[in-house]
């Protein structure tokens, strides 16, 4: 953004004293932003805990009063909670004593005989026997599983030992320690350029007499 249109404190004036030789005196004008602000502290007003109000108050009595209210409210809550629990307990006892609403007064109450109680005992004995048998079956299955895992681990160890023995030539009863022949030992055309002399590469600082240019002419221009 250009600053050509902004006014200055000492605008340029045409005259004989041009060229930066004029001497300006100190300006008597100043900006409103240079004026000192907030020269006084903000005092407390009434109701904002001034020093006079704090001197008149008894802070210890206020603290004790708040503590008393707190503890009294807690005691009331505990008392109400205990009464509620007592009411619930008595209500449950009454409901247990009462006859269910679905039962009519004319219905006869069923009384279990001794035979039925004996049948119940027999059923309980049968269930206990079944549970014991089930526990025995679970135990046997767990033992079988552990035995199978142990056998698998032993077999894996044996396989690893056999592989290690076969990998060691000293323990493998090797007949000869000679190095195996390469696959290209019997090839007819092998190392044909062994006796040929390679022409060393040279650098010629001339594009016309360089080896690349000579080969190019020999290949395409001849």
Automatic annotation (TrEMBL):
GO function terms (MF aspect): RNA binding
GO cellular component: catalytic step 2 spliceosome
Superkingdom in the source lineage: Eukaryota
Coiled-coil ranges per UniProt: 127-163
GO terms (BP aspect): mRNA cis splicing, via spliceosome
Entries under InterPro entries matching the protein: Cwf_Cwc_15
Keyword ATP-binding: no
Comp. bias intervals (Acidic residues): 105-127
Residue spans of biased composition, Basic and acidic residues class: 43-79, 89-99
Keywords linked to the UniProt accession: Coiled coil, mRNA processing, mRNA splicing
Disordered as annotated region, ranges: 1-127
Sequence similarity: Belongs to the CWC15 family.
Protein name as it appears in the record: Protein CWC15 homolog
Lineage: Eukaryota, Viridiplantae, Streptophyta, Embryophyta, Tracheophyta
């Amino acid at each position: 953004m250009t600053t050509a249109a902004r006014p200055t404190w000492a605008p340029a004036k045409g005259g004989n004293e041009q060229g930066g030789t004029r001497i300006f005196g100190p300006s008597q004008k100043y900006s409103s932003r240079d004026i000192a602000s907030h020269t006084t502290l903000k005092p407390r007003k009434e109701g904002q805990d001034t020093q006079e109000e704090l001197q008149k108050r008894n802070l210890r009595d206020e603290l004790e009063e708040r503590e008393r209210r707190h503890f009294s409210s807690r005691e009331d809550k505990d008392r109400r909670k205990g009464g509620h629990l007592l009411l619930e307990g008595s209500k449950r006892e009454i409901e247990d004593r009462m006859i269910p609403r679905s039962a009519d007064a004319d219905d006869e109450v069923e009384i279990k005989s001794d035979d039925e109680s004996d049948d119940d005992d027999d059923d309980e004995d049968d269930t206990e026997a079944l549970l014991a048998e089930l526990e025995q079956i679970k135990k046997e299955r767990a033992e079988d599983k552990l035995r199978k895992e142990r056998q698998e681990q032993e077999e894996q160890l044996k396989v690893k030992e056999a592989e290690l023995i076969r990998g060691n030539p000293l323990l493998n009863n090797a007949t000869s320690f000679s190095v195996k022949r390469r696959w290209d030992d019997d090839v007819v055309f092998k190392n044909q350029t062994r006796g040929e002399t390679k022409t060393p590469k040279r650098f010629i600082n001339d594009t016309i007499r360089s080896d690349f240019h000579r080969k190019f002419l020999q290949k395409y221009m001849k």
